[in-house]
Amino acid sequence: MTKKESDQVVDEALRKKGQPVEYLLFADQGHDFLNPENRIRFFEAVDSFFQPLFI
Question: Which top-level group of life is the source organism from (predicted)?
Answer without folding.
Answer: Bacteria
